[in-house]
Amino acid sequence: MAKQRIYELAKQLGLDNKVLVDKAKELGFNIKNHMSSLSDTEVNELKNKVKPSTPAKSHNDEKETEKKDNKIKLSVSSIRRPASQSKNHSKHQHSDQAKKRSNDSSNKRRSNRHESDKKQSNKSPKVNKARDLLAELQQKQRAEETTLAKESEKARKIWHEEKNKVQNQNTENQNSQKKDTNEVTNQPEEKKTKKVLGPKILKPSPARNRPKTEENKQKQNQKSKPKRKPAMNRTPQIPVMPEESVKPDSRRNGNGHGRNTGKPGRKGRDNNNFDRRNEHSDKMERRKRKNKHNNHAEEVRKPKTVRKERPLPEVLVFEEGMNAQDLGKLLHREPAEIVKKLFMLGVMTNQNQSLDKDTIELLAAEYGIESKEKVHEDISDIDNLYQKEVEASKESKHQESRPPVVTIMGHVDHGKTTLLDRLRHTNVSEHEAGGITQKIGAYQVRVDDRLITFLDTPGHAAFSNMRARGAEVTDIVVLVVAADDGVMPQTIEAIDHAKSAGVPIIVAINKMDAPGANPSHVTEQLMKYNLIPEDYGGDTIFVKISAKTGDNVEELLQMILLQADVLELKADPHQKAIGTVVEARLSRGRGPVADILVQQGTLEVGDPIVVGNTFGRVRVMTNDKGRRVKKATPSMPVEITGLNDVPESADKFVVFEDEKTARAVGEQRAQNALQKQREKVQHVTLDNLFDTMKRENMKEVGIVLKADVQGSVEALSQSLEKIEVEGVRVNIIHSGVGAINDSDVTLASASNAFIIGFNVRPTATAKSQAESDEVDIRSYSVIYKAIDDVEAAMKGMLEPTYEEKVTGNLTIRETWKVSKVGTIAGAFVDSGYIHRDSGIRVIRNGVVIYDGQVASLKRFKDDVKEVKQGFDCGLTIENYNDLKIDDELEAYEMQEVKPK
Ligand SMILES: Nc1nc2c(ncn2[C@@H]2O[C@H](COP(=O)(O)OP(=O)(O)OP(=O)(O)O)[C@@H](O)[C@H]2O)c(=O)[nH]1
């Protein structure tokens, strides 16, 4: 049988040539490659060897797998090993296998080889040629392999030399790592080569090799704690570096920092980052140095100011809600210190947090000082300021005697004004309208170089309120009782007022010259009111005088001074001036004018002043004789100008440090007063709801009241409001001092009220406005006249009755029918007049056929109010169009009939 070549057999078996060659070699056949031929025996033997493990049907799969395996092996080995090494390795393997087999088949093979050689030499020249070619190819292959191996060996040597150089350098630098470095450098070449050429191996992070900070050390210790062996067994720890970590510097970008992952890309990036970082840090460094330099320069220029430690205040006057900053200012300490102190006291706060009273007190105690809460003063409460000044004067060491302020009281016509006239040597009563004193006057009388201030209060009942106010500033009341008239109602009222004010009374029994004078009777009457003369064991001074003749007036003055001495009246002229308004009015040329009585201190021209709800600066000051003065001492009545508004009588006044404050206070008070007034008008509660409803059903007479002085306004308004007419009451819508002006008319018109002017007249514009608005203005100079008129008007309002009054007769002369308007009658006024609002009756043949209202009234094309006798007019009647020529028209009005 012919010999078969291995590749043929491989093809037949569906195996790779190499596999078959290997198998054949395993069996010890004398073959070289897949071209080698096999004998039949060898073929069979090889088939047997291959067959069991390689079933025919899976040949392809196996082939594939083998191919893959071979490829992988080759690829891996080509990377991992140098060619020569791989060759050696295969040689070794080959030799091992040969050794194994050599024992059992060496002789046999040797003989076979000889045989085959012989056989081959005997072959055809073609075969020999092919063999030679093959041999030649093999030689070439071997030569190439040898060259490659030499080159790789050379390259490896160079690499090792380089590496060793670097390692040696590092070894010198890093003594602690010396040992390990040496170990690594002494490692076998194969291993090292393997490392370099082999696939990437994940290396321990260089981070672990960083110099250990304290923190890192701690962390590492914590981590390694459970793994630690007992201390006794521990050997001195030499850090065993991982293989790669022994050459860290060569991998750390030359600076020992940064992470090296072994990737060139990342290396590069790290380098760049690092460079940038370096650059940045350099800049920072430069900047720092520069700043240092600058700071230093500043330090040189400006020596540091050391804050002076100011002493703590004796008392911490605080307000609740202050914060650490506020308290820091008061205590002359840094707010941070305050916060710290509070923290120590257990109060967690910041500099801006409001603190309560207790905390602030605690803080003061911590500093060892007293604390006092600041009491808020409402400077707009001038009554309070006034009272404070009064109290201050009582404790003042600069008190001086002051003139007594005397008020003369008594019943009407008992001679009060005559007495004052006598005292002032002027005749006031003759000029008084209606013979009644209408104003509070204040005068000073000199008696033996001593002064007595008199307030002339009117005796009429309507002025009782003013009298009571007069008593407030009064030290002594002189009660005038006519000897021929005796005690009257207002005498008793005066006694009550004086007593309630705690003011001592001196009784002046007047009109001793009158024929019916009976002083003992008067004395008896007064004793009923606990006014007991000294003669009767009492302490009331009785003086019998005649104001008319002047008898005993001097003695009365002496008695007043005596009483003043008993009272020891004193004041401090050096303190801030306070006092009371006696009277106020609006002067046309001078503006608001106020008669005031200085009670404490000294008022000077130019003083910023708040008077009631007004304020200003004292511009001109005039005394009771009409002379200008610059100063007003205690108990001195003066008239002042310079206020921004007219104050009310009995208002308090207080002088302020500056005009700004005075203005602020005055404005605040005016605003408060306005608010109060509004609340008074608008406020309706459950308590007053019934009253309000009741008032809604009542008819009201609205009055706008204007007078020359505030006292008259008050007196008149009180009298008017007292008028009682069943079902009707007076409502004073507005009252004030000064002429009747436009706004008064507007207000009266809007409120359907009329205006009463007392001693004042309307301005020209107000007069014309009143006429156009049909507002009634009544002017009076005597109070009771005004009261009587109002009373009559009020009676007129009670259920007024109306009666018809025919005002005119007309005859229709023409009619026109206009669509949308109706019938227009052209009529002639035969008698009287027709008004636009007239009622109208249509009379035809003596019979009233319609009674209605005029709808429109015209003359030619113009609407008119009224058409009088002798004129033509055009008219329409509401809801009636059946108008015919010669119809008679009767115009009429419903007129109010006053109750009798
Ligand atoms: N015979 C006599 N008549 C006097 C005396 N005093 C006043 N009269 C008169 O009494 C009247 C009233 O005097 P007045 O001084 O106006 O009285 P009044 O108390 O001021 O009156 P009112 O201002 O209304 O409060 C006048 O006619 C005086 O002339 C007096 O001493 N003797």
Describe what this molecule looks like in 3D.
By secondary structure, the chain is α+β, with helices and mostly antiparallel strands. Helix content is 43%, strand content 22%. It is built from 26 helices and 32 strands. A six-stranded mixed beta sheet has the order 7-8-6-9-10-11, with helices on both faces. Strand 7 and strand 8 form a beta hairpin. The longest helix has 49 residues. The termini are far apart. About 23% of the residues have low confidence. The structure holds guanosine-5'-triphosphate (GTP). Guanosine-5'-triphosphate binds next to helix 16. GO terms for molecular function: GTP binding; GTPase activity; translation initiation factor activity. Its main location: cytoplasm. Keywords: Cytoplasm, GTP-binding, Initiation factor, Nucleotide-binding, Protein biosynthesis. It comes from Lactobacillus mulieris. It holds the Pfam family IF-2.
Instruction: Write down the overall mean pLDDT.
Output: 73
In this entry the ligands are: guanosine-5'-triphosphate
Query: Which strands sit side by side, in order, in the main sheet?
Result: 7-8-6-9-10-11
Q: Can you count the beta strands?
A: 32
- What portion of residues is helical? 40-55%
Which segments are poorly predicted (pLDDT under 50) over 5 or more consecutive residues?
53-121, 176-274, 426-440, 459-464, 681-694
Instruction: Give the overall shape.
Output: elongated
Radius of gyration: 66 Å
Structural class: alpha+beta
* Span between termini: 176 Å
- Biggest sheet statistics: 6 strands, mixed
